[in-house]
Here is the input.
Amino acid sequence: MKDFILPPKDWDMGTPLPKSDTTVTLKIDGFDVTVTEGTSVMRAAMEAGIKIPKLCATDSVEAFGSCRLCLVEIEGRRGTPASCTTPVAEGMEVTTQSAKLAKLRKGVMELYISDHPLDCLTCAANGDCELQDMAGMVGLRDMRYMAGDNHYAPTSAGSLSLNDLRARTPDAASNARYIPKDDSNPYFSYDPAKCIVCSRCVRACEEVQGTFALTIEGRGFDSRVSFGARTDNALQSDCVSCGACVQACPTATLQEKSVAEMGTPDRAVLTTCAYCGVGCSFKAELNGDKLVRMTPYKHGKANRGHSCVKGRFAYGYAEHPDRILSPMIRDSVDQPWQEVSWEEAMAFTAQRLTQIRDTHGHKSMGVITSSRCTNEETYLVQKLTRQVFRNNNTDTCARVCHSPTGYGLGQTFGTSAGTQDFDSVEQTDVVIVIGANPTDGHPVFASRLKKRLRQGATLIVIDPRRIDLLATAHGSDTHHLPLRPGTNVAVVSALAHVIVTEGLADESFIRDRCDWDEYSHYAEFIRDPRHSPEATELLTGVPSDALRQAARAFAQSGNGAIYYGLGVTEHSQGSTTVMGIANLAMLTGNIGRPGVGVNPLRGQNNVQGSCDMGSFPHELPGYRHVKNPEVRAIFEKAWGVPIDPEPGLRIPNMLDAAVEGTFKALYVQGEDILQSDPDTHHVAAGLKAMDCVIVHDLFLNETANYAHVFLPGSSFLEKEGTFTNAERRINRVREVMKPRNGYADWEVTQLLANAMGAGWHYTHPAQIMEEIAATTPSFANVTYDLLEEKGSVQWPCNDAAPEGTPLMHIDGFVRGKGRFIVTEYVATDEKTGPRFPLLLTTGRILSQYNVGAQTRRTANNVWHDQDLLEIHPHDAENRGIREGDWIRLASRSGETTLRATITDRVSPGVVYTTFHHPDTQANVVTTDYSDWATNCPEYKVTAVQVAPSNGPSDWQEDYAAQAAQSRRILPAAE
Here is the structure.
């Protein structure tokens, strides 16, 4: 056996790793190599540390065999087969180096180089070009071909480089085959002159992303990569700017503009994306301390080397000029801000908080934690209110999005999180996507799901809109149930009704794994004819036949998985729908193995973590109620103070109490509740009534309009810590650059706590994680050393599962037996009527994120620079609304104006908009109705009227003036 050095972890192995339990042993260059059955000869050689030249092969896509550079010789076979497309066989003997192979490879490289500009020294890919590397690897030192037809020269004369051409050819000369560089995309350029037609970009777009935006146009020597129609450029095409094509390109044909401008990066730091709940791993690549690009990490267990436009490119906000880098204070919100030192800011804040506590009592102040900050930072913020403020007044944006998940899954399964890892989708046979739009909200997961759909899995979408997932290219069987907003429970119950009444339930699973008495009671309830698809059709708007077909497909198609989003939770019956979804999974036995499960798609990077860390007013870290004395005792011992046994205030309660005069101070870390929470007028009134609002953020957000203290935050690039994604995966966040404001966010919270007399002495987030592990059973074995060793782990991670738990409930539910719960449909109190006949629902778009504070400060605005209202052609015609018109959107809570876009993606009677832009303030029209169990706001159902308008409303103009007044900044005193 060869005593070889294993290849570096980041080597491109040429072809993907096959999935097989069988191994094969062969000889490569005389050495025995044992690999998985189905492995290509190329990959087998790479695993043995033997590199074979290649251009069209890369391990992110299937083998293609077009470049003919990876030729090998195989004993007993004629010719020189391509190693990328040749699978290994037992006893095979392979030769990768011989005089014959060297001659062939050099000849192939000469042909490539003959139609490629040789301006390598000034090329943006210099030092990072596979064509350049392969030319060196095969020993190409000269080219025999004379100048002739080519695609790279703007004239018809071939030459060494474009600079030579400019100097040596007349201005009038031209080359019909030359295509100028396409710079339309804000993040990367496409230079056809440098294309070698390896098709890696096309295959990446198809196989990895699943968009099919690229194709090969022409034949033979005229072949070139095209963004669709001849008239389309990169920006106008279907391209979603995920970066997969750029990642796959072996030359400078597709090149990041940042690399062309800043140079090839010379070092990298592995970290985790701070956008959605997928939790993609990235290599932040730098020149010195300047970030050049973010490249998806191929071994990231959540993203497997893929990315989206936000994580890949939209990181420029960290250095945007709007960013505030110095602390600021003011006595009242009508005054301009005054820049001060950190010491002055902390003294001012501590004095105000102490005065409020002494005057109004311990419970007159509270905190809001951030789902964008790390676990360690979130833990400290909730600790601040419980140990230092001495109350449980802590809440988080996670409650206004996924708190029904915690409640519903806790009641049915016994734990408050999803059941699977993202790899599980590769084994599913039928997928329900309900109340989620993965291609926009969770695009990297959506790409993995689309790949499975192309392989034959059945898709069932339950959504008022026709989401892009329904248009998956080369997908198979699809079902769309376009329900009326607010009727989720009725639709889920109707699905269950069909499964139970048609005898499709998995009785053996139910008897073995679930409480049979609970099931019997539930089955009696769900069999009632009032839950049948025919009985609910008038209510939900879903045709009964379509619903029955979907129910049968889910129950009979093998592994069934359910993925859901905020379209489930942000309803007055959000918790009920989550319990109904859990009922569906248990009914069909789709729990406890790969390819199945109940999977909430978390909206922000650390929504799961902020819940885990005890951000709710009734729960300490680990989802343990504050009323339990044995739980309080753990933290009382760790923190040295008594813990209040009474639950604290949620955000709406804080605002109500502020208006009443009993709640006076609020510390808000990394959240913009004025823009993101419902009923903007009510939020503004509550903030205005407080005596001390502390905003800790990167930018002067909308909430800061009513703040007295602004503490500048640090971006995810400037901190150490961990995020926990939607699959319970704990990923490391690493410091890429030093905090521009001077402190990481955990340090700022510690400064504030110590100014209040806490005496904290953390010197690194690893120490905070040690405290989390010591007090939280599901994190008991989590350490930074373990995360460095494993890359990431999924909680629970404890003595029972020392390396984490990818799949939950394998042998039994956390609560013991699964619990079926009756899910009675109760209509929302938000009703349509003559004044407000339409239903508004809200959501996200791919290029923007949440309230847009980050993405609006990047080039992503080129795709979505304003919120638009989607309205059906029938409703638009009835109101005299045309495409692009200003419209007035009014509800019982308020009104705003924005432009209309006319589409049949929404049903008649339903309108839809996003909430990314503060000048729209979509939440000014949403109501204060909320989930019955968790107070999660009902963002998804608002009765509205739409009418033509002539521009921004009076309220919008007044708000803009007030915001400008509030954001005045005086320079720091000398």
Summary: The longest strand covers residues 895-902.
